[in-house]
């Protein structure tokens, strides 16, 4: 899950209140360009957006006025119970998650690990009998972390745990040794710009909300370079820490020098801040030999359950198959991949073929480029997608869904969510989406995300600790059940 998701939730919540998908498109296109997790703009299609307004004419369901919770329980109550029972029966999806994470390891874009994991997923999906299983080729960026270290030279010598941020340039081979300027936000950096020249700027910004705090990770190197800093460090974007640095995407612009940018653990950020506060001069030496290589080829993974009446209409769901190069991306986002994969497989195993096509996509390169998602929208955006769902907020107890789209549809899906009361995943929140489905916004596709208990997500996000033990098998099954019920109903309503 990236900064984009969070920013999008807020933009989108306001737009829902404005009452139409059309307005949403206009706002997104006119004011704030969509961006990748690293902040690069997402190209918008030339195609005219779907004119889905508050009028029911353009909505996908002919019977939309009757679609309340009574209807849902009468028509889909029994099916929902079967799906939930079936989802909780075994832990095969969890075993597959463990196998993929353990066997192939971290899955950064451009790595052999990622492509081997994709080969295995494609072969396993085919062996399960899923329909139209394929890998769509996508060019993805290649960034290699290489060797890196941070050492405090003064006031005492010790090593500082660090992780370079994805896309960062290297330091010279001997490293960069400089005094640290600690700031608590961009405003303080501006106010103390004269002190920054030749220093390493440390943004010591405590975690509040991801979308707020992550700006120091994504933009920190630009802001620090603007005032003449030689490198920048960010306090890890983490809501709790056991001395774990958190990596993630960052960006540069062409108007200022590109300086190395890395994350340190919150404990060291606090220590350095205390030392400076006491009037001690803190000197660090940062060494990084990261490099960016030419693009490589990766793949989006696609599988389907073709619709029985309107196969050309699609509900698409998925997560992202790539991860950072630390940990094994069990929560971010193997969990989302296996929950949505299992959801599709439940429908197949129960012989539940809805009216419309349910399509599973495991997007590549969400973390440091979003190229898979952009490619998907360019290639398939012209098809009639009536709903897109993403699961990229980790896997823990599901609470329900977030949704952005026409208010009439919000009511329909809110009624459908009441089918999930038995697993307490029945809430509907205004405002939903995700990085990988965001390039479908300009095509007028309503956006939904699985909402889970996120209280511990940012303990592990983008760290060496994002490993399968952080995923609970029962939660994974409940998430799959919630997604399967919602997607089945969305695809099947007449
Ligand atoms: Zn993610």
TL;DR of this structure?
With 494 residues, this protein is α/β, with parallel strands linked by helices. 36% of the residues lie in helices and 23% in strands.
Strand content: 15-25%
Q: In CATH, what is the class of the largest domain?
A: Alpha Beta
Q: How far is the N terminus from the C terminus?
A: 33 Å
Q: Give the domain tally.
A: 2
List low-pLDDT spans: 3-33, 43-57
The value of Rg in angstroms is 23 Å
| Ligands and ions found | zinc ion
The fold-level CATH name of the largest domain is Aminopeptidase
Spatial ordering of strands, largest sheet: 1-10-12-11-13-16-14-15
Please give the CATH architecture of the largest domain.
Answer: 3-Layer(aba) Sandwich
Main sheet summary? 8 strands, mixed
Give the number of DSSP strands. 16
Q: What is the helix content?
A: 25-40%
CATH superfamily descriptor of the largest domain? Zn peptidases
Mean pLDDT score: 91
Looking at the structure, what is the overall shape? elongated
What is the N-to-C succession of helices and strands? Answer: HHHHHEEEEEHHEHEEHEEEHEHEEHEEHH
What is the number of helical segments per DSSP (H or I, 4+ residues)? Answer: 14
Structural class: alpha/beta
